[in-house]
Structure formats: structure tokens, C-alpha cells
Amino acid sequence: MPQKKAIEADASAIEEIMRKVHHLEIKAKRLSRESFSGEYHASFKGQGLDFEDFREYQHGDEIRFIDWNVTARMNSPFIRTFREERELTVLIAVDISGSFDFGSKYFSKREIAAEIAAVLAFSAKHNGDKVGLLLFANEPILFLPPAKGSRHTLRLIREVLATQAPNATTNIAGACDFINRTLKRKSLIFLLSDFVDNDFHKKLGTLSQKHETIGIRIFDPVEQELPDVGKVNLLDPETGQERLINTSNANVRMAYNKLNSRRLEALQKAFSKYKIDHINAATDQDYLPLLHHLFKTRSSRHA
């Protein structure tokens, strides 16, 4: 009987995940088609130029594009012509550590991450880009190489919702190293995390030097400031440690708020230093205006 109950529980969990995937598919397809398709296309350019053909040199052409072999054969200067390479390689990297399963109201950070990942994945799909997925916690947990197709995109969404990390701690630096080792070609990286970790800023900078990197910080409002609710047991979801805290103590709240402010200031400085575009999405607010603003800012910069 216990085994039968476990099987039924697993089946129920799978059914719930598939229901969420179907819901996200409908929502993300609509948003990517109606709201983000043009903005995404304008925001993220191709990663280079593809050789197209040769033609005779004309006044004003770039001398550096002259092909000297063809020029010698034809007894007249010829240049190489190129077309813009529109196709991008996109990787959505999602933190699935213990702290990312927290949510104080309607949605957890992971559920918001799954929605954003779905919108990004379908926007990339409509643009003809290849999309991959990295799920990480204290180490890389799952890597789906960039590919095209609806089935691949749906699997990506399902894995964000369903994959569990064997260790709940976070290692953003390790995720950055993995991406740099694995993706040989310059790619567009969306990094979704609460960025509650230590000693990862330099590795984040190295990642941004090799790949175009976008930071998407997802947080819960309760994490911003410690509320005055008396004595509570606080559980660290990543270490499992539990501690009794008197939140009515003004010094305790002040110390927590200062620590949190310093961490966020350091993260902001790292984003600015390495010129990483980013947004801060709360679990209790609509993330769509933030994505719109991100895309519009980038498209105006590229105009």
C-alpha cells in the first residue's frame, strides 16, 4: 500500500506540472507573439557577419574587405560581401537552489522564473534562434544544448518547474565557469537567480566578457526587510539550519536590513562594472513592464 500511495502521489505531481506547463505555454506564446516579438528582434542582434559573395571594388568600399587572391586572378580589385547573421544562440540559466523555491504570497521565485523563461524561450523561437537551458544549484544540474522546435521549448519549461537539485546550496561562479567551458560560440545568456551567493562577481564579469549577459534577479518582498512579527523560527532553505529570531528587536531588524542592503549594493556595482543589463522582478508584481523596459532600452541603444 505505501508503494501504491507513492505512485499515486508521483502521478499527481506529474499531472500538476503538466498542467502548469500547458498554462505557461498558452500564456508565453501569446505574450511573445503579441508583446515581445518585435522588441526581442530589435533588442538582440546577430553575433556577426556571414560571407555572401564577391563583387568588384567600388569607390568608398572598405579596403580591408579586398580579397587579394580573387583580385590577382581577375586582374581587378574584388571585395568580399557579407550578410548579417541574424540567428542567435540563447541560453537561459536558472538557479534552482533551495532559496529559489521560496514565495511568501502567490508565487515562488522559481515559478516566476519559469514564466519569464517561457516568454524568453518562445520569443527566441519566433525569432528563429536556438535556445538552451542550464539549471544549477551548488553545481550544474541539467544542461539542454541550444536547439529549435516546439517540443524542445516545452521540455525547457517543464524542466524549470520540475527538476530538483540534490544539494540546495548556490554556486553562481560554478555556473558561469560551466557556461564559458561549454559554449564555444558567443551567445546570449539570460541568468535568472536571486543572486544570494558569495564570491561570484569576478566570474560573472568573465562570463559577460565572452557572452552577452542579461541578469534577471527574482526576489520576494519579505526578503527585502525583516518584518516586526515577534519571535519566529527562520529556516535557511539551502543549509537546513533553523534559528529563533526576535524580529521585534530593532537592532536585529537593522542588522538584517544593513546586511541585505550591502549585498544588493555590491551586486548593483558588479552589474554596472561589467556593463550587464539587468532587471529586478518581485514575486508579487508584474514582470512584463520590466521586460518591456529592458527590450526597449536595448533596442534604442542599437538603433
TrEMBL record:
Gene3D superfamilies reported in the protein's UniProt record: von Willebrand factor, type A domain
Family matches, as Pfam families: DUF58
Entry superkingdom: Bacteria
InterPro entries (UniProt xref): DUF58, vWFA_dom_sf
Domain annotation DUF58: ranges: 53-262
Stored CDD domains: vWFA (cd00198)
Protein name (Swiss-Prot/TrEMBL): DUF58 domain-containing protein
Record organism: Rubritalea tangerina
